[in-house]
Amino acid sequence: MTKNISNVQIKNLIKKASDARNFSYSPYSNFKVGSAILTSEGEIFSGCNVENSCFSPTICAERVALTKAVSEGYEDVIACAVLAENLNSLVYPCGVCRQVLAEFTDSSKDLDIFCSTIFFFG
Asked: What residues does Zn(2+) bind to (predicted)?
C-alpha cells in the first residue's frame, strides 16, 4: 500500500461495500456487487450495481459510490473496495470503472483497491 490506510479503515471499507451489495438491483444477472470508496478526507461512500434491461445504462457499484462522493464535494479518492457475493474468486473494477476512478485519484499516487467476497467477509 502506498498510503497510510489502517487495517480498521480497510475493514470498515469492505464492510460498507458488503452492506451496499444488499441493495443491488441486478434482476438480469443476479450478480450483486457492492463497492465503497475512501476519500483523502477519510470519508467513505458506498454504492451497489444497478442494472438495466438494455445493459448499456447499467452502472457498476464503483461508479455509484464515486458519483455519490463527487456529488457531496469529495474528489480525491485514495482507496476502493469491491465485494461480490456469488463467486469463489475475487472481482476487480472493470476498465470503465478504473478510468473513472483514475479521474478522481492524484496522478502521482496509486489507488489502493481491496477486493473481497462474502465468503471472506460476510
From this structure: 60, 94, 97
pTM comes to 0.90
80 appears as a binding residue in the annotation:
no
Q: Is 115 annotated to bind ligand?
A: no
Task: Encode 7-32: b = buried (16+ Cβ within 10 Å), e = exposed.
Answer: eebbeebbbbbbebbeebebeeeeeb
Digit-coded pLDDT (tens) for 72-100: 999 999 999 999 876 677 889 999 999 99
Provide the percentage of residues in the chain whose pLDDT is more than 90: 78
What does the alpha-carbon distance between residue 117 and residue 99 come to, in Å, rounded to a whole number?
Answer: 23
**Rounded Cα–Cα distance for residues 95 and 8 (Å):** 28
Map out the domains of the chain as residue ranges. 7-117
Would you identify the CATH topology of the domain 7-117?
Cytidine Deaminase; domain 2 (3.40.140)
Distance CA 34, CA 78 (A): 17
- Spell out a b/e string for 78-111, using b for 16 or more CB atoms within 10 Å of the CB, else e: bbbbbbbbeeeeebebeeebbebbeebbeeeeeb
